[in-house]
């Protein structure tokens, strides 16, 4: 096949493009449109939130459910989350390290990226829009309990709250507590209870009905 | 004042669904449990950008529809294996054509900016691992 153009071919070129290139082109388009005032980031964020729960393979729920049912996996997950996630066949981790933080009856963890929107991608998929808002990034550190209340999570006063700063090198996610009344449940059933917000630490898992 | 946990208003999703419904090769749109789904962050940004541009600037959705048909046809004309195309790659190609024809961006601007982004180390913003909590609210100090 011959090409009439030799320069870097945009997407229109017929070679297969890497996701890195495509991501850069999409980002370039967005940044130019926003810079020129043609569209606002808020408008794009709003539209992306319509389907945001459908992004990514929802792997985090599987990781949590497996940790709830398999104590040895849980131990490996807490020791080295990057390696433990690889066991489940998750790829796409570009060298960055992941750490799982275990919630207990006494300690609750909350994850934020104070500078930008570093997020454990391979496990949690696309970050929700609010994750990068200054309001979340600042208030999660100053007033974590207040932020959690806005998400409907009202923890007892006896619980200590720890806030962790995700960075490009080290990304955190939360291992929530297994809800009561789920004895004998399969991993698949349990995975259905795990919410994205519970793995960021702003929300609770779903509880079995009844 | 920005609310942190803002959700789209209930009428938005049906409106966006109906835009998706009229797109070409509808059966090729990746779905998860029947809902439009994405494998990569850039895919949802390209999707959301296009819908937001349509809603804010008011250009007819048919214009994007036509660009997407064109982008898919151009791919098919040049390939022997017709099954190998990616929906959102064609989507991005169509969006670029639309943006060029509307005069929102030039191909040169887009190439230059893409190059800049690719040249940036991905960890430029926030590099170092932070291994201790950045805040602790001890037990008994609940607000």
From TrEMBL, chain A:
The EC number(s) this enzyme carries: 4.2.1.84
Top-level taxon: Bacteria
KW Lyase (keyword) present: yes
Gene3D superfamilies tied to this protein: Nitrile hydratase alpha /Thiocyanate hydrolase gamma
Reactions this protein catalyses: an aliphatic primary amide = an aliphatic nitrile + H2O
Enzyme class: lyase
Any matching Pfam family: NHase_alpha
Assigned keywords, A-Z: Lyase, Metal-binding
NCBIfam families assigned to the protein according to its UniProt record, in alphabetical order: nitrile_alph (TIGR01323)
Record family assignment: Belongs to the nitrile hydratase subunit alpha family.
Protein's name in the database: nitrile hydratase
Organism: Actinomycetospora lemnae
TrEMBL record, chain B:
Pfam family, one: NHase_beta_N
Species, as recorded: Actinomycetospora lemnae
Record-annotated Nitrile hydratase beta subunit-like N-terminal domain positions: 30-122
Name assigned to this protein: Nitrile hydratase accessory protein
């Amino acid at each position: 096949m011959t090409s009439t153009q030799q320069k870097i071919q945009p997407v229109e070129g017929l070679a297969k493009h890497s996701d890195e290139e495509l991501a850069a082109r999409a980002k370039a388009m967005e940044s130019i449109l926003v810079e020129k005032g043609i569209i606002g980031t808020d408008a794009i964020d709003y539209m992306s939130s319509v389907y945001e729960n459908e992004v990514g393979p929802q792997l985090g729920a599987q990781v949590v459910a497996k940790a709830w049912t398999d104590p040895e996996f849980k131990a490996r997950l807490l020791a080295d989350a990057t390696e433990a996630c690889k066991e489940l066949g998750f790829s796409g981790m570009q060298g960055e390290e992941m750490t799982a933080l275990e919630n207990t009856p006494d300690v609750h963890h909350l994850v934020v990226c104070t500078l930008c929107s570093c997020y454990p991608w391979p496990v949690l998929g696309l970050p929700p829009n609010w994750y990068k808002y200054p309001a979340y990034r600042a208030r999660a550190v100053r007033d974590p309990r207040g932020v959690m209340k806005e998400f409907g999570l009202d923890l007892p006063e006896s619980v200590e709250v720890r806030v962790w700063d995700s960075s490009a090198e080290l990304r955190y996610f939360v291992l929530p507590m297994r809800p009561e009344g789920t004895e004998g449940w399969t991993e698949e059933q349990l995975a259905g209870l795990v919410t994205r917000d519970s793995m960021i630490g702003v929300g609770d898992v779903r509880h079995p009905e009844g | 004042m920005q609310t942190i946990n803002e959700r789209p208003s209930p009428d938005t999703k049906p409106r966006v669904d109906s835009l998706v419904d009229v797109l070409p090769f509808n059966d090729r749109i990746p779905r998860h449990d029947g809902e439009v789904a994405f494998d990569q962050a850039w895919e949802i940004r390209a999707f959301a950008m296009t819908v937001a541009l349509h809603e804010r600037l008011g250009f007819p959705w048919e214009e994007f529809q036509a660009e997407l048909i064109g982008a898919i046809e151009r791919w098919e004309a040049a390939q022997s294996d017709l099954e190998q195309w990616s929906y959102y790659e064609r989507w991005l190609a169509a969006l670029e054509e639309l943006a060029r024809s509307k005069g929102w961006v030039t191909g040169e601007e887009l190439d230059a900016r893409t190059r800049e982004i690719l040249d940036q180390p991905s960890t430029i913003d926030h590099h170092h691992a932070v291994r201790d909590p950045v805040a602790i609210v001890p037990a008994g100090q609940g607000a």
